[in-house]
Amino acid sequence: MAITDNALTNHEVTICLAGGAVLGPFNATWSQDNGGDVRELVKEYDAFLQGEKQRRFKFHLHDTYTNTVQTLVVNFEQVTGICDHVRLKSHHGG
């Protein structure tokens, strides 16, 4: 069974900082219809690691289970890694 375009993916994002500090984990949900910046955060950080200048500093992580939004303001120069743990829906064929 294929995952539809509007299927929710549930992310648990942890940001590691220079010096050993850790931000998170932050729960975030993403779908085509109900976004947030969880995927953009990882894309932007990956581009930064490949030599691009950081364009965004503020990211909003939407958690639809608790109906909350976490706002992160991040300087990638202080980030040593981002872990985006994704819990996928299980699909049972019939």
What's this model, at a glance?
The protein has 94 residues and is mostly beta strands.
Whole-number radius of gyration? 14 Å
Going across the biggest sheet, name each strand in turn. 2-1-5
- Structural class computed from helices and strand pairing: mainly beta
Give the low-pLDDT segments: 1-5
| Helix percentage range | 10-25%
The biggest beta sheet reads: 3 strands, antiparallel
Between the first and last Cα atoms, what is the distance in angstroms?
A: 9 Å
Strand content: 35-45%
Give the rounded overall mean pLDDT: 85
Total count of strands:
5
Helix-strand pattern: EEHEEE
Characterize the overall form: globular
SSE diagram, text form:
Blueprint: E1 9-17, E2 22-30, H1 38-49, E3 58-63, E4 68-73, E5 79-87
Antiparallel strand pairs: 1-2, 1-5, 3-4
Describe the structure.
The chain is built from one helix and five strands, in the order ββαβββ. By secondary structure, it is mostly beta strands. A three-stranded antiparallel sheet has the order 2-1-5, with helices on one face. A two-stranded antiparallel ribbon has the order 3-4. The longest helix has 12 residues, at 38-49. The radius of gyration is 14 Å and the shape is globular.
List its salient traits.
single chain, 94 residues, mainly beta, three-stranded antiparallel β-sheet, two-stranded antiparallel ribbon, 1 helix, 5 strands, globular, disordered N terminus
